[in-house]
Amino acid sequence: MALTQVSSNKRCDGYQKVFEHDSSELKCKMKFAIYLPPKAESSKCPVLYSLSGLSCTEQNFITKAGSQQAASEHGIIYINISTFTVYSGCNIEGEDESWDLGTGAGFYVNATQEPWKTNYHMYSYVTEEVYVSLVTPWGGHGALICALKNLGKYKACIYLTLHRLKLFSGYLGPDKSTWELYDATVLAESYSGPELDILIDQGRDGLFLSSSQLRPDNLIAAFSKQKIPVVFRLQQGYDHSYYFIFSFIIDHIKHHAKYLNA
Amino acid sequence: MALTQVSSNKRCDGYQKVFEHDSSELKCKMKFAIYLPPKAESSKCPVLYSLSGLSCTEQNFITKAGSQQAASEHGIIYINISTFTVYSGCNIEGEDESWDLGTGAGFYVNATQEPWKTNYHMYSYVTEEVYVSLVTPWGGHGALICALKNLGKYKACIYLTLHRLKLFSGYLGPDKSTWELYDATVLAESYSGPELDILIDQGRDGLFLSSSQLRPDNLIAAFSKQKIPVVFRLQQGYDHSYYFIFSFIIDHIKHHAKYLNA
């Protein structure tokens, strides 16, 4: 795909860049951010993907997550993507009406229902169109399903917050069996790919957990049953915000680097 | 002063808080941010001040600078202040008309001219009203003049970017000798206080330096003449943005911690 550079700023000895391109999967313009560590100037580096959640543009992660210092140190190329940026350009009727459907909440699925099915193909965009030789997705629920559904394609997968599957009939229709194609708990129950080493941090005192929109217990049970190694840390006092992500991102980049640089 | 807590979020094992209070120096409501490292729960910790520059609210530093990880590690309380937040509440005629005078650019001076002289006393606010037992200011030019003018009151002083003194006759009147009271180069030339150890990082490729609004050479000459130790690093490829600050903040917090925790 042909990329147009939108911005480039030196940061932590490397470069933080933003690119724009026409996406064949999404049928519209797409923007993503990429951090190039200094090591990338002279050698091949592994790529880590961050899949931002509700209402985030590619700028949220650049600005607030504090990932560049550790990416620079471990020689990791860091790509961050958001559904919000791209879908804002589709001009679908009603796309801005709800906080959990449309532009603000594209999720990493391939929609099958009108009016979303032409553009809302973020799952294929991430796993096919932008896939680079050594990638390892992370973020929320979207990252986990990318790893669980693409056996052997990703070397490691972690994420910081668990969002309970709330896939709206709007994207996938009323048949609940189609929802399970994007349900990490269901996918984990039948996982038979290469060994994964999963690290999950979850803020204990966030709104989403207390309102039961997040159900880490179901997922942990599925991993245990399948004997998939998982470290789950329920972090006291933390919520679901970027302050939480900033607090643990160094641990997570180290976790990835162990496999990616092996 | 009586403080009202505006927000509190757990971050890097400590807490990022924002407080509001009525300021006697500024004659209006003031907001500042404070990061409390975990060590502060059980023991006394030194305080580091960050004085934000043009057009910044207290949120810019919280969100973009990435200071909390190192402050947590070294047990440093971090207060960040901005002139923009407070002066936005003064409702002075014409305050929003210019980017370099009024709300967007209060500077850390005590104004003597109308219409600014009632409220624009940020210099006294920082050095008197919010002064805590062990403080060490840093930021831009404002931080350096606080240290140079208050002999022995601050243990260390550093800053990341040099802004050439551009004190507008608007704040201090046409008599240029009054401007020198807030000119770091002039203050350095006559400095006779306790030994300072100054660390300066300057982005080489920023707009302000190339347009000669920043003149680090004059300041370095003054320090050299006075035999004040200074490390000046002109960083290739970096500008004047938060990406630059984020890139070197860990070095600067370490520099402070050496003195503050001694």
Automatic annotation (TrEMBL), chains A, B:
SUPFAM superfamilies: alpha/beta-Hydrolases. GO terms for biological process: formaldehyde catabolic process. GO terms for cellular component: cytosol. Pfam families: Esterase. It comes from the Eukaryota. Gene3D superfamilies: alpha/beta hydrolase. The keyword Acetylation does not apply. GO terms for molecular function: carboxylic ester hydrolase activity; S-formylglutathione hydrolase activity. The keyword DNA-binding does not apply. InterPro entries: AB_hydrolase_fold, Esterase-like, S-formylglutathione_hydrol. Its EC number is 3.1.2.12. Serine hydrolase involved in the detoxification of formaldehyde. Belongs to the esterase D family. This is S-formylglutathione hydrolase. It comes from Sinocyclocheilus grahami. The lineage of its organism: Eukaryota, Metazoa, Chordata, Craniata, Vertebrata.
